[in-house]
Structure formats: C-alpha cells, structure tokens
Specification:
The structure holds two protein chains of two kinds. Chain A has 14 helices and two strands; from the N terminus they run H-H-H-H-H-H-H-E-E-H-H-H-H-H-H-H. By secondary structure, chain A is mostly helical. Chain B has a domain of 186 residues: Rossmann fold, CATH 3.40.50. In chain B, the strands form two sheets. An eight-stranded mixed β-sheet of chain B has the order 6-7-8-3-9-10-12-11, sandwiched between helices. In chain B, strands 2-1-4-5 form a four-stranded antiparallel β-sheet, with helices on one face. Classes of the chains: A mainly alpha, B alpha/beta. The structure holds adenosine-5'-triphosphate (ATP), iron/sulfur cluster and magnesium ion. Magnesium ion binds next to helix 1 of chain B.
Chain lengths: 326, 327
C-alpha cells in the first residue's frame, strides 16, 4: 500500500517537472516582463536594476532552478497587473473556485449516477428516454450558453436567483465560504449547475453503458441463476462493478471541472481562480498564469492519485501481487 | 413421479426477418436423482433448453409453447419473483466458464453466504459455517482460510468447484450444468466431473448435464438426449444410446467417438453442417446429411417414436404401415 503510493508519487514528478518547464518558458519567452512592469516611462538604469532584481541576467538553467525552488515554496513573485504576491492572490480566489467545483462535482455524481443506473436498468421506459434526450442537450450545448440560458430564466425572468457574484461569504481563517449564508447558497446554484451539467450527462451516459455491459456478464447471469433478488443483483453486484471504470472517469472529470471553471466563472463573474486567470491573460500577467497552470497540474496529479487509491479500495484484484500494470 | 417434465417446449426468437424457432417440440423427463446427459452439435439448442428450464431465456427469446413442470407444478409461466425463489433453491445452475461466473469484487465466502441467506432460514453466522463446509465438500484445501479469498485468487478448476458449491448450497433438487468442464484444463476435467457426480449422488440431486464429452456421458449419465437443430433426435438409457444408437444422427455421433480409454474433448463432426435456424429443411431436419434418407423424410417431420430400447425421431422406426424399413 505504502509502496504503491510512493510509486504513484514518483510517477507524478516528471509531469510536474514538465509543467514547470512550460510555465517557466512562458516567463522567459512570452512578453517582456520588464516593459510590462515599468510601463511606458523608464530610464535605462531602472531597467538594468529590474533585470537584476528579477534575475533575468542569469543563464537559463539558473533561472529555471530559481523558479523551481520558489515554486516549490509556493512563491511565484508579484503579479504584473496587481503588484501583489501571486500566492496571496490565488489563495484568496481558491475557496470560491473549489466550493464551486466541488458543488458541481457533487451534483454531477449525485444526479448522474442514479440517472445512469436507472436508464441502464429500465432501457425502454419513457423516463429513460427523457433522461437520454436531456443528456444529449447537456452534452451538446456549450457551457456559456447553458449559463446564459439559466441566467435568463432564473435571474431575469423569474428573479429567483442572482446572476453574478458569490453572495455573502463567511470568513473562516483564510478560507471564505458561501455555504453558511442563504445568499451564498443561492448564488452558488446557477454556476454549479452550469459547471456540472456537462459532467452530469457524461457520467450518466457512462454509468448507463457500463451498466448495460455489466448486466450482460456471466456473473450477473449466475447471480440471477442463484435466485438473488433483483435488488441484490442490480445494486450489490452490477452497480459495484460499474463503479470501477466510473471512478476513473469521474475523477478526471473533477479535475476538468476545476480547470474549466474558467468559462463558468466568467459568465457568472464568479470571483475564483478561473476569473483571475482570464483577467491575467488579458493583461499578459505571466506570473499569475504560470502559477495557475502549475496549480491545475497539481490538482490533476492529486486527483489521479486519489483515483488510484479508490480503485485499489474497490477492486480486490489490484490488491494482490504486483498491483496494476499500465 | 418425474421431478422435471418438459412438454412440447417451443422457444422462439422474434427477429426483424421473421421468427426463429430455436426449440421445437422438445419433451423429456428427469426423475429425482437422475442424471440426463444432453449432447449434440454446437447450436443444437442444448443451452437454450437449460435457460428455458431455469427461466432465464435472454430476451427477445421466449417460451412460445409447451410447458415445464417441476414436481407437477408449472414453472414456465410464473411471474419473475416466484421463479426467482425457485432458482437456486430448487433448480441450481452451473455455467461453462468459471473464470467469468463469479463476481470478481466479492469474496467466495460472501457469495456463498448471500446465496444461502436468500433461500434458507438461517442467520449469517450459520451461513458462514455452512459455506466453509461446502468449500470443504467441493475439495477446496484449507477452506476456513480460503473463504475470504477473492475469485481471482483461485485457479480455474478451484473456481469451478466454488461454482459447484454455489449451485448446491441451497440444496436444489435439480442442477442444470451447461458444459461445466469445457473451459477447464483437460487434466482437471475428470476430477471436476467426478466431484459433481459424487455430490449429486450423495445429495440425491438430479442433473441435466450438457456436454460435448461422450466419455463423461458414458460415465455419468443415466439417460441421454441427443439434440439436433432445436429438437430431440433420440433419447434413451445411456448404454443403449452409446452402444446401439437408433437414430442415424446419433449413430454418426457415436461412431465418431474413439474407444473409452482414449478420451477426446470434442465430438468429431459428421459430414455437412447443421442447418441454421432460419433454414431448417422441411421434413426431418437431418435429411440433407442422412445416409439413409428416403422420400417421407423430405415431406414429413418425424416425432419421437419407440425404436429399440430408445425413442428416436426417425421415420425408419415408423409403425408397420409406413414406408420405413427397420434396420
Ligand atoms: N439471441 C438469439 N437470437 C437468435 N438466435 C439465437 C439467439 N441466441 C441463440 N440463438 C440460436 O439458438 C440456437 C441454440 O443455441 P444454444 O446456445 O442452445 O446451442 P448449444 O446447443 O448450447 O450450442 P453450444 O454447444 O455451442 O453451446 C443456436 O442456433 C443459436 O444460433
Ligand atoms: S427421418 Fe429420414 S432423414 Fe431423418 S434421420 Fe430418419 S432416415 Fe434420416
Ligand atoms: Mg451451449
């Protein structure tokens, strides 16, 4: 078990290294930070000073080593645009994005899995058809359009839910949460649905097709031949086997949710990391972009590890012998 | 009275290009404790017959005629829930491939306990003790330690023993065993059959044993049914059918078996192929391949009729008035 985790972590290192290299390359080759930071008017002396301060006169690998060393400590320098430490900016925005992403993921799983099971078990019922049609819409409509349609319906026409912002948030240490106030929860509804809808329909379709597959297997036939109740066959035997692949996809989807929160955050002016990123792109604020990129990579790597551990917990075949080979 | 009676069973598959008749007019009985061997080429309808008996025909397949009775009660038209209680409890099933019949995510013990708790009025602790007993009975070494192992931790032969334990653990009166050793290593097939035979005898369990292995039939079965193109071609006591088959198809089948001391896994093929369900010839389905075919065979379909010590569906045995000439 311990060896398994360690080997997974070691596998993650090259990924993180590559991403750092890309982030650093952005620093080094995209735009001229000196010009960006100094604005229009500056003297040659100021320019030389800044180049030394930023370490831009060092050789490439030295600069990269410094960058890596700083990155490991969560140190990404100052934002060009806001002149505040990047780490601070991101820490400020992270709770908004994480709360949004987890709510969206929760909705996607809590609704998508039961819908998938239902449509797998009752393939020909009218409700299954409704679900499938609905899922087609979810898969084919772009996120921003869904967001706008929801805003139009629930904010503009019905006036039930706010169309932008996080509502009132409560501060707990450095974390800010919208879960504790009514206006915070109301503000979360539309963005979370917008963000989770695509994943929801994807998970539903995945669970459905896995379920159909599993229901055709010999061990399900044998479970029926042993006279087990439908309930035991469907939920005890079929669903559990369905979950093995679903865990992987759902895990990757969660990473996707966090990464692609950008669109939703823009539509709803959600004060999270995605919005920060978009604003930074507009201003060529490289330190923020680099930090964001590395953070997202870290999130994916972490989620992959968790997925592997869950796999390990669900499927006994992996626990014996050599573990899972790729 | 017979334990199982199958009467004029007909199974159909509605398809876009018309209805396929997979089983037609299949009738046979199995007495308590009796082993009925079922043989025939691939596609003859052996598995289909088993599936119909345990009530698990795969849709759109359906029983379109005839009846199946267990101890005199009809079971072919029961609602799903009633039939479910019979499966496992009164009719057990063993499938071909032990590598795929066990749920990989649950321990063998859990699967045994779950089956017993479903059917028997016992508690979990008692069920677990019995599960260990069953594993010992089917010859799993160190059963008490192995009970919490997962299927993949057992070899193919051991897994089939677990499957046998699962099929027997609620003490059904009849077991439908569909090629229980075909997927196993040749070297362990005999052991598994011997185990099955011994347990069936000890528990007085009747068995419908589908196999391609005539050696197994000769050693295990009391009676044999030979199937061809969805029908029974011949049925009778095992000695008669193996040594003095009456139906030309059975004769061909038996002629292709080497002597008992050298066992083969598969029946050698008779010349030609069995017709597809969509193209079963008029009259006797065997007539295009039959060396003794005559006029009537191409016009009328023969039903089972007494032929020597067996019943054969062949015009050669038509009562005197017919055109047939007894061999
Ligand atoms: N879903 C289906 N639709 C149409 N025909 C089917 C279907 N399933 C099976 N059949 C047909 O039913 C017939 C009987 O099949 P069955 O599986 O009972 O054969 P079998 O005697 O068990 O053969 P084997 O020795 O290969 O196991 C075959 O001709 C097969 O093609
Ligand atoms: S009925 Fe005719 S064709 Fe059919 S097996 Fe008998 S002799 Fe052959
Ligand atoms: Mg078969």
């Amino acid at each position: 078990m311990f060896a398994f985790i360690v080997s997974r972590l070691l596998q993650a290192l090259p990924v993180m290294f590559t991403v750092s290299l890309i982030s650093f390359a952005m620093f080094a080759y995209v735009g001229d930070p000196v010009v960006i930071m100094l604005g229009q008017d500056f003297t040659e002396a100021q320019r030389q000073q800044l180049i030394r301060d930023l370490g831009l006169d060092q050789p490439f690998f030295m600069q990269f080593a410094t960058f890596l060393g700083n990155a490991v400590q969560g140190e990404f320098g100052l934002s060009y645009r806001l002149s505040r430490p990047v780490a601070e900016l991101i820490a400020e925005r992270a709770p908004a994005t994480l709360e949004l992403a987890f709510t969206a993921a929760f909705i996607a799983l809590a609704v998508g899995v039961p819908m998938g099971v239902y449509t797998g078990l009752y393939r020909y019922s009218w409700l299954s058809r409704v679900f499938l049609t609905f899922s087609l819409i979810g898969v084919s409509l772009p996120t921003f359009l869904i967001g706008i349609l929801l805003i139009l319906t629930f904010s503009v026409w019905l006036g039930w839910l706010p169309s932008f912002g996080r509502g009132e948030v409560t501060r707990i240490g450095w974390w800010t949460t919208g879960f504790l106030t009514w206006s915070g929860i109301k503000a979360l509804v539309l963005p979370a649905i917008t963000l989770g809808l695509f994943q929801l329909t994807l998970i539903m379709r995945l669970v459905r097709s896995e379920m159909l597959e599993v229901l055709r297997t010999d061990y399900i036939k044998f479970a029926r031949a042993r006279g087990l109740s439908n309930r035991a066959v469907h939920f005890g035997h079929a669903l559990k086997n369905t979950l093995v692949p679903v865990i992987t996809i759902a895990g990757l989807q969660l990473g996707g949710i966090i990464a692609f929160a950008i669109v939703t955050e823009t539509v709803f002016q959600w004060p999270g990391m995605g919005l920060l990123f978009i604003q930074s792109v507009g201003a060529a604020d490289i330190p923020v972009m680099a930090a964001y990129l590395m953070l997202i990579a870290l999130v994916f790597v972490t989620i992959n590890l968790v997925v592997d551990l869950l796999y390990y917990a669900v499927d006994p075949r992996l626990r014996i012998g050599r573990g899972r080979g790729h | 009275m017979s334990l199982l009676q199958v009467r004029n069973l007909r199974v159909e598959f509605p398809t876009r290009r018309g209805t396929l008749v997979a089983l037609d007019d299949v009738s046979f009985d199995i007495a308590p404790g009796e082993v009925l061997g079922v043989v025939g080429e691939s596609g003859a309808g052996k598995s289909m017959t088993g599936a119909a008996i345990i009530g698990l025909l795969e849709p759109p397949g359906r029983i379109a005629g005839g009846e199946i009775l267990l101890e005199g009660r009809r079971i072919d038209n029961l609602p799903y829930e009633r039939m479910r209680r019979i499966r496992g409890r009164e009719i057990g099933a063993i499938f071909q491939d032990p590598l795929t019949t066990l749920n990989p995510l649950y321990t063998v013990g859990r699967q045994l306990v779950e089956t017993m708790l479903t059917h028997l009025p016992i508690g979990p602790a008692e069920a677990r003790e019995r599960a260990i007993g069953w594993l010992e009975m089917v010859g799993i070494p160190a059963a008490r330690e192995r009970i919490d192992s997962y299927p993949h931790e057992f070899s193919g032969g051991m897994r089939q023993r677990v499957v046998i334990a699962l099929a027997l653990c609620a003490e059904p009166k009849l077991i439908v065993a569909d090629e229980p050793t075909t997927a196993l290593d040749v070297s362990i097939q005999a052991q598994v059959i011997a185990l099955l035979k011994r347990l069936a005898r000890e528990k007085g369990t009747a068995m419908m044993l589908v196999t391609h292995d005539m050696g197994v039939i000769a050693e295990t079965a009391d009676r044999v049914a030979v199937m061809y193109a969805g029908r029974i071609a011949e049925i009778g006591p095992v000695r008669e059918v193996v040594k003095r088959a009456n139906h030309p198809y059975s004769q061909g089948l038996m002629a292709s078996i080497p002597p008992l001391d050298r066992r083969v896994e598969r029946l050698a093929q008779i010349e030609g192929a069995m017709p597809r369900l969509s193209a079963i010839p008029k009259g006797c389905a065997y007539n295009p391949r039959c060396p003794r075919v005559f006029d009537r065979c191409r016009r009328e379909r023969p039903d089972l009729m007494p032929a020597g010590a067996t019943l054969a569906a062949c015009w050669l045995y038509a009562p005197a008035s017919g055109e047939g000439h007894a061999p």
